[in-house]
Design a protein that fits this description.
alpha+beta, 3-stranded antiparallel beta sheet, globular, 4-stranded antiparallel beta sheet
Length: 206
């Protein structure tokens, strides 16, 4: 009497799950590579600009240390938004300023040290095409429930380096032609990039 060995065929659902997993992995890889390419392009083509920091405090995290960031220019932008709302004579809008959420652009002018200073809010419908003066550039901001945000509100660094970054006076950004800022370094009062691993700091404009 002969015995037959029956081979179990893969279930269609198993093949489909494998296909979905492979497609999902490919999508993730494409998205990651596009993100890296966008980051590299931003660094290569954007302008350097310094923004003066408002008072900050280093705070400890389990993964290391980070410094909470705020920028002196934020107060000027908020004041300009409030003034713009006041010009509308709409008391309700003024009263809701600190619950307001919006995205916008401001015009910034760099001084000889590369520090950006507030010039004006950008009124996009009225300023098309946009004409910027020498050393002026755009800077994007986000207003969320009355809190103004520029790029990021934290700078992360390795554990044990807090003392070096306590000397920070400026954030060094790369700002593209859309006004999108990317924080790359913190800078001291001598306009030197802070690098705890390097005893010979480099100027922020290099």
């Amino acid at each position: 009497m002969s015995s037959a060995v029956l081979k179990r065929r893969p279930q269609p659902s198993s093949k489909l799950s494998l296909l979905v997993a492979i497609v999902g992995l490919l999508i993730v890889l494409v998205v990651v590579n596009l993100g890296i390419k966008k980051y590299e392009t931003h660094l290569a083509t954007a302008q350097k600009m310094l923004l003066q920091l408002a008072p900050v405090d280093p705070r400890s995290l389990m993964q290391g240390d980070y410094m909470a960031l705020d920028y002196a220019i934020s107060e000027q932008i908020m004041a300009a938004i409030e003034q713009q709302l006041a010009a509308t004579d709409n008391q309700k809008q003024i009263d809701t300023l600190y619950n307001l959420s919006q995205d916008g652009l401001v015009v910034i002018k760099k001084d000889p040290q590369g520090v950006g200073h507030f010039v004006r809010l950008l009124d996009q419908p009225k300023e098309d095409p946009l004409i910027l003066a020498k050393d002026e550039l755009l800077l994007a901001y986000r207003l969320r429930h009355g809190q103004l945000k520029i790029a990021t509100n934290a700078f992360f660094f390795e554990e044990g380096q807090a003392a070096a970054f306590e000397q920070a006076k400026y954030g060094l950004f790369r700002v593209n032609d859309k006004g999108e800022p990317l924080l790359t370094h913190l800078v001291n009062s001598e306009f030197e990039v802070i690098d705890p691993k390097n005893n010979s700091p480099k100027p922020s404009n290099k």
